[in-house]
Amino acid sequence: MTRSTPAAFVLSCVMTLVLAAPASAQLSGILGKAKKAEDAAKKVADLNISEQDERKIGEDVSRRLRDTFGVYQDAEVTKYVAIVGTVLAQASSRPNLNWTFIVLDTDGVNAFAAPGGIVHVTRGLLGLMQNEAQLAGVLGHEITHVTAKHTVHAIQKSKVVSLGAEQSRTGTLTSEIVSRIAEQAYHMVLENQFDRGDEMESDKVGVRLANQVGYAPSGLVEALTLLSDRNKGSDAPNGLFASHPDTKARIDALTKLIAQEKLHATATVAARYKEHITFEAKPVTDIATVAPGSRGLAGGGSSAAEKTDGKEEKPAEPKKKGGLLGKFGLSSGQQAQSSQTVASAGGRAIGPDTLATGGANKNAVQVTITPAELETFRKGIAG
Question: CA 349 to CA 273: how far, in whole Å?
């Protein structure tokens, strides 16, 4: 008995080690994966998205948005929106970006801010707003998505960029990575996948920005109220600002901010707005839409066959009159399209305003704005 005990003990130890080996190997594998994940995260954090790269991504987003919704071919309306936007952008934290403002040709009520300074509003949104302060509130919100780099930061955290970062030895973006970012960002923006903090920041900074240049800070509150009224009775999140946090919480937060910070600008400039925006938004029930998912990964435009409500979409005809064309001297034409695309800021993918059909013309309308024109316009804000 005494001689057999050591042998049994050795055998027991060997069996214990054999049984423990797989667990140890498994633990080693887990630690190895954790280290790889940490290294990948560091690569993403170190990945340099330059201002030039940001613009390339934004151009991809803009092209895809134009493919999806078309461009409203009214030079006067385009210039009017561009001047309001430029006044705000020049007062923002990134005034030197190549700010571009595009009106998308769709009845859907929406707005999208592509990285690098390309802001889009829809014809439907312009028809819903009632004065310049409301438009300024929306544009201030979208401009802040750009200045705060919300889309860029969200993409940096995504698995798509994590995989792409491993292919970049120099820490800069290859064309392949830009393409992958563009595809991801288009859907992120179109479906309004900004988090609560991003949306609240864009609301607050946008209101401050509008107030800074002289617009009533209540403009964004009024715009949110109009959007909330438009979506009453609908269970599906729909269009601009129809995501988290809920609209009431945003209105309450902005009302509190305006009071606490004593934001006292008063200009609404309703008369000038009505002079240039002479159409109204269609009710949600009258919006012609495409089938969910029919636009595909490429974010392509809609066709008559894709409409789900049986309505025939009648293209909006550009207005022909004086106004800004005569006052400011505008040059119009076609803007070159870039190679790919991505998007920014809309509704969560299932509402009629997000699924709205668009026009056939994909070419952006170019406008030229001089410093003198901007100064004249600013004086109009002050009254």
Answer: 30
